[in-house]
Each structure stands twice: as structure tokens, then as C-alpha cells.
Amino acid sequence: MKEGHGRTILKWLIPLICAIIVIAIMLLKFSVDIRKDAVNAVEREIEEVAEKYALRITNELQSILVSGKTAAQVISQQPSKKTDIVQQLLEALVNQTQVYEAVYCNEKGVFVNQDGESVNFGEDIYEEATMPLSEAEYIYLPDDGVLGIPAILIAVPVPDEKGNLLLFYPIKRIKDLINIDKEFGQTAFAVMVDKDGNIFSDEETGSSFLKSGNIWADIDRKSQNAGTQAKVAMQNSSTSSVELVVDGEEKTLAFTPIGIKDWNLVIGIDQSYVNINQNRMWRQFLLMTLQILSVVIVFFLFFVVVNAIGKKRNAENSKTLQEKADTDLLTGLNNKLATERLIKEYIRDYPDSLAMMFVLDIDNFKKINDTQGHTFGDEVLRTLGKRIGVNFRVTDIIGRTGGDEFTIFLKDLKTDSNTLKESRKLVHFFKDFQVGEYVKYSATASIGAAVFPTDGSDFESLYKAADQALYKAKKRGKNQLAFYDDRDRRE
Question: What global pTM score does this model have?
């Protein structure tokens, strides 16, 4: 006995140990995968922030361009002497957009700003400003030639070759659009660059990455490969992120195109900040995984315990499921398949016994559904299913075999006289059968009866005989019972 018990324990212990080993290996591998997922998730989060701010910059620059085009259109329609209207338009551009200087360069190369003053530019800017333009252009100026600050020049051609409209947008405005400190801490930075990584500087470096004016210029040797791949991605106008080192300063750089020329927004975040968030996310993932694995292990142990005592319950459950499969959901009686199977089993096992089959239909059931509603029709069937069994033995077979059709099979009636006795009980039942909680409705039925084995020695022939008797009852006026052999008429 003890030896058998030991074998049973060993039977489950070995698979349990194997399962724990497999789970441990999976956990180790999954931990590595989760760390990678955490890294990717944090990087993607940073990239999404970069995309959000890039869109903000793009929207503002394009809004200025739209305003500039509108002003240029109005200027083109003014006589050359109407300088006051031009000045008003320039003032409106400065007051209502983020440009700090608005200059009109007429077809003669004369520059006038929003204050009505003449403006003198250096040779480089002069060439840019007086060049005939077929469409608007964005130009980065390390020195704007006005205040000596870096700016983006938005040059808008005035229609009919009447010169150019020059709008100066300060690079330092980008810092106002981006709450980089609030997002990623004091050591983070955000700058605009061209496709080669040249920085649109506002002379506030603060990071080794910005000191030389090019984001890729001073990358440490160990970061060269990653930097090269990132540079290619930037030139292909892709959003991406990369971990780089410059003079011992480690940062994750996220870059994304702003949709204007080949310019990009680059966000640099201290690597310690990134690592903290990656570890936090990794711990969350890992904790969730451990919880899931713990549930799996507990479930496995529970399964082992349940399996040891479950064979008997499985048999009981199978029986319960079979009963459910055999049950008509509306009435709680046997369904058609179960009724037929049970009757066939009885006929097979007791071919010489005396039995009787009733097949009944609710009279005028379609009218009940049409006038009282389908819900009330269901209530008629449900109530009939609950009450009809009281008149017969628990061993008899009662089932719902159609929409409003019921089949009753009475086993082992002993004597032929019992057939009429049982039929009277059924007739009497329908005389008192009423449905409804407040308004009582008297539902009647037409019933056909056939005797086994006299009227049929198998299920098919017996059912056919009872069905023909049911037809007789309906033909006689419904609300009555008729036998296949008319014994109810020979009393």
C-alpha cells in the first residue's frame, strides 16, 4: 500500500520538478526579452515626445507662412506709393505671429521694416533677400543681420514680381515651444538640425553634444557605429533614437523630421534618466510576468491535487453535462433527441412490456403567439413543462419534441385497462390547465395516443400511430384525446 502511494507521489513529483525547471529557464529568457522590450518602449516614448514637439514647430512655422502669403498677396495689389498699408501689414505680422522682424524688399531692392525704417543687410543676406523666388523658402541664418541672433528667414515672394516679404523667426523661440526640462529634466536639450546634423544654435550649449555646432561631430569612438546608423536614418527622414557618448557624457538622442526642408528636431536626454525609466518599466513587466507565472504554478499544483481526486467527479460531471444536453431549455423537459433516445432504449430493453405514447399539440398556439405575444406563448410552454409531470411517474418519459409539441411515454402499464385510465388523467389535466399570473388563460391541447407494442413495435411506427391519432383529435374539433385504435370510442 505504501509502495503504491509512493509511486503515485513520484508520478506527479517528477513532472512538477521538470515543469519548475522549464519555467525557470523560460523566466530567465523572458527576463532578457522583457528588458529589451522595456528599452524599446522607453525609446519609443521619447520618439513620440519628439514627434509631438516637431509637429508643434511645424504648425507654427507653417502658420507664419500662411500669414505671410496673405500679406504678400495684399501688397501685390497696392500701388507703389501706398507705403502706409505695407507698413500696417508688416506690423500686423509682427504683432500677430512669432516673427520679431518683418521686412518688405520691393522690386528695386529697397528694404523697409514694420516700423517704416530702411534696413541694411550684409552681402549674404542681401543676395538671399533680393533673389527672385518662384515659391516661399525657409532659410536658416546663423546671424540674422538685424539683431545679430540666429533665426529662420521665411522668404515669401510677392506676386507680379514686386519683390519679397522677409519674416524673421527667432531660433530661441523653439525653447518656448518645448517644455523639455519638464519632460526629461534639467540636463535635457532640444535643438533643430539639418540633415547633416548641423545645429541651429541659439548660443546656449550646456552639453558636450552641442559645443562644435554639429550633433555628430564629437561622438566617442565606441559610439561611432551607432552614430553612423543614426546619421543615415536622419538623412532618410526617419524618426529614431540612439544612445551616444561625447566626452564621457552619455545621452539618448531622439530625432524626427519636422516636415520642412530636410530639418530635424533632436532631443537629447541624459542616459541616467533613460535607464531609470527603462528599469522601472522592466520591473513592472517582470513583476507582471512573475505574477502570471505564479498563477500558472499555483494552477498546476491545483491541477495535480484535483486530478488525484477528480476521476469520480469527472464521471458525475459527464452525467450532468449529458443531462444538460438532453434538456429543453425552455421547459426543463427532455428535448427531442433525448426523448427519442430514451424511448428507443426502453423499447429495446423491454420489447414485451405494455406501454403507451401520447403526442400532443397546444390548440391554436400560433394564435396565442399572434394575439398574446411570443413571451406569453413561451410562458404557456414553460408552465406546461413544469406541471404536466405531476400526473405521471418519475420513471415515465416526457419531452418537448417540437415548437408546441410534447411527447409522453408511459412505461410498464401492466394491464390494458390502464391505458384508458392514464389517458383520462391527461384529459383532466388540460381541463384545469391555466396560464398567467393576473389574467388566467385556459390553454387546451389535442392529444393522440398509441399503445406499444400493439400499434407499433418500434419508435418510428409507434410515433406515426400516435401522430395519426393526434390528427383524429384535431379533426374532431381539438381539445380532446383520440387513440390510434379508437378504444376511447368503444368504452
Answer: 0.54
Whether the per-residue pLDDT at 15 is higher than 90: the answer is no
463-479 pLDDT tens trace = 999 999 999 999 999 99
* Nine cell digits for residue 218: 564629437
Q: What is the pLDDT of residues 114-156, one digit of tens each?
A: 998 888 887 777 777 778 888 999 999 988 888 889 999 999 9
How far is residue 121's CA from residue 124's CA, in Å, rounded to a whole number?
A: 8
- CA atoms of 450 and 422, how far apart (whole Å): 12
Element (H, E) at 50: helix 2-76
Judging by beta carbons within 10 Å of its beta carbon (0-12, 13-18, 19+), is residue 466 exposed, middle or buried? Answer: buried
| Preceding amide of 453 cis, omega within 30 | yes
From CA 148, how far away is CA 95, in angstroms rounded?
Answer: 21
Residue 361 confidence (pLDDT) above 70: yes
Give me the count of residues in the chain.
491
Q: Which three cell numbers stand for residue 244?
A: 551616444
CB 463 within 8 A of CB 395: no
One-letter identity of residue 104: Y
State how far the Cα of 94 lies from the Cα of 366, in Å rounded to an integer: 82
- Quote the cell numbers at residue 272: 541616467
Whether the per-residue pLDDT at 273 is higher than 50: the answer is yes
Helix (H) or strand (E) holding 164: strand 164-170
C-alpha cell at 424: 383520462
